[in-house]
Amino acid sequence: MQYCVDHPEEISKLAKVKAQVSEVKEVMMENIEKVLDRGEKIELLVDKTDNLSSQAQDFRSQGTKMRRKMWLQNMKLKLIVLGIIIALILIIVLSVCTRGKCH
Fold first, then answer.
1. In whole angstroms, what is the distance from residue 41 CA to residue 28 CA?
2. In the structure, what pLDDT confidence band is assigned to residue 46 with cuts at 50, 70 and 90?
3. Minimum mean pLDDT among 6-15, 75-84, 88-97: which range?
4. Cβ proximity of 102 and 96 under 8 Å
5. What average pLDDT does range 27-55 have in this prediction?
6. How far apart are CA 64 and CA 82, in angstroms?
7. Is the separation of the CB atoms in 11 and 4 below 8 Å?
8. Half-sphere exposure of 32 (CA within 13 A, CB side)
9. CA distance 31 to 22
10. Which residues contact 4 (CB under 8 A, 6 or more apart)?
11. Where are the beta strands (DSSP E) in the chain?
12. What is the mean pLDDT of residues 31-52?
C-alpha cells in the first residue's frame, strides 16, 4: 500500500495499460464474432452454390432430352409429309398410266 501511495504515476500508467488491454480484448471479441458470422454466411453461400449447380445440371439434362424429343417429332412430321407427297405422285402416275398414256 505504501508503494501505491508513494508512486501514484505508476499506478496511473498501470490503470491506462489495463484499460487499453480491456479495449483490445473487446475489439478482438467483436472481430471473432464477425469472423464467425462471416463463416456462417460463407457456408450458406456454398450450400446455395451447390444447390444452384445441381439445378443447372438438371436443367441442362432436361434441355437435352427436350431437344432430342423435338428433333424426333420434327423428323416424324417430315417423313409423314414426304410419304404423302410420294403417295400423291404414285397416285397421279398410276392414274395417268391406267388411262393408256403409259408406254
1. 20
2. confident
3. 6-15
4. yes
5. 88
6. 27
7. yes
8. 6
9. 14
10. 11
11. none
12. 86
